[in-house]
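Aim 2 progress update. The chain analyzed this quarter is reproduced below.
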Amino acid sequence: MKNNILKRLLKSLFISALVFAAAPVFALDNADFHPDMDSGLAAAKKSSKNILIFITQEGEDELSSSFMKTVTSDQLLSQITPSYELVGMDFSQKAFEKTVVHDVDSPENQQAAKDAADKMQKNSRFAALINPEFTPAVYLFTGEGYYVSHLVLKGSEDAAGFMTALKADEEKLTAIRQMIDRTKTGKPLEKVAAIDEIFEATQPEYRFFIIDLVNTALNLDKKNKSGYMNKYVITKTEYDAMIAFYDNDPKAAMAAYEAAGKNKMLTKDERQQAYYMAALVLVKSSGPETIPQVLDYLQKSLDAAPASKNAPQIKENMEYFKNYKAEGGKTE
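Predicted structure tokens:
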């Protein structure tokens, strides 16, 4: 059953609170599951295992509850726990209710609700990054927290079907693990080349999960001798902006795009787009009093690549805001 979790997570780009919360229902009662990615990563660091993440809406789709009964059975746990740390995230109304603090509750119950809300916040941020559209969903990650795959269950949510899907993706895991090993040896540019293997092997929508490798590459190749760093700057900028949007901090998002606009490792067109995004964030997050700053960003965007294919549209936008200001849009 399709459940558009992202729509439940975010009503708009700049929302600060989620429309639902996520507290891991089954994980709290099962010692084999970690309640959030942070605890899963900490355990994986100690155990040298990789990570399986289960995202469900128990009680709100036809499969989540029955699937998790299968997953938590002794038969299946005995097959997966020797190699994997398990993380459970349940995005259901029942989970939401566990985060509500009631004045009439005992201090212990109030603290439990606050702890559940803290886990919810972590899980919700993870879900905003991974953007699951279906539940149940199972993701395979390395022990470092790098995305490997979204398991394709093909309608077989029984133990055999799950293991078939997992085995099919373990080749991808082995390849990524070999790439990770290559990032740890050699000269700086050799490490950058190894990081770039992982970068290119990771689907663009999941590159936020390798942000530590992105930052490492940027630090290893500050003069862009590899020629790769423009795509790393863009990924870092998009990550910083995404986190800023999630935290309802448009100023931080604008700062990220503005910094990218100044970065000489980007092409002229990429710098133009960065300034344009800064203007767009400002328009969507403020009132008419910021029109002068909007125009400043648009002018910087135009100046970055005045002959680009997007230049005419930028000029048209500038004229619109100039007219709006002239007609009294600017407040004193």
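The radius of gyration is 23 Å. The longest helix spans residues 107-130. These observations will guide the mutagenesis experiments scheduled for the next reporting period.
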